[in-house]
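Here is one chain, start to finish.
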Amino acid sequence: MPTFWTGCGNRLRELACGISAEDEWKFAGIEWFQNYILLGLQSEPHRDWHVVETGCDPGKILAEMANLFEEVIGVHFSPDMVRSTGSRNRHLDNVKALLNDGKTLPIGIAFVDLVYSVLALRYVNREAVETNFSETNGVLLPAGILRFQIRRDIERRNSN
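Its structure:
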C-alpha cells in the first residue's frame, strides 16, 4: 500500500528536498537579486546608494541589500508585512520598513539611487501600477535606476 504525505506545502518541501521553504526562497531570491537587480552594478561599489524595495513582503532580501548599500528601505501596504520586515531586519541599522497605501512612496523627492520590485506588481491594478511608477519617478535621482519583475504568464492573461 502506498504512503501519502499530507500537510502544508512548506513542510512537504522540507521532507522531500531536505531544505526549509525559508532557505529555498532565500537562495532563489538572492540568486534572482544578483542576476537581475544588480545586473551591471557589481563592477563598481555603490556603498553610498539609497535603495527602495516596493512590495517588500517580509523583507527577506533586504539583509543582502544592506550589505551593499548605505540605506535600504522596504515599503509595503500591509502593516503585518512592515512589522515582519522590521522584526526580521531589526539588527541592521541601515534597513527601514515603511507603510504605504500601495500606490504612493513615503520617501523624499529625488533621494533614491535604485528602486526595485520583485513580483509585487501582480497584486495591484493598472491605476496602482501607474501611480507607483509616477511616485518612483519622483523619488529617483536623475541617474536613478528602476528594476522590477513581473510574471509574464499573468501579463499575457490579464491586461491589468
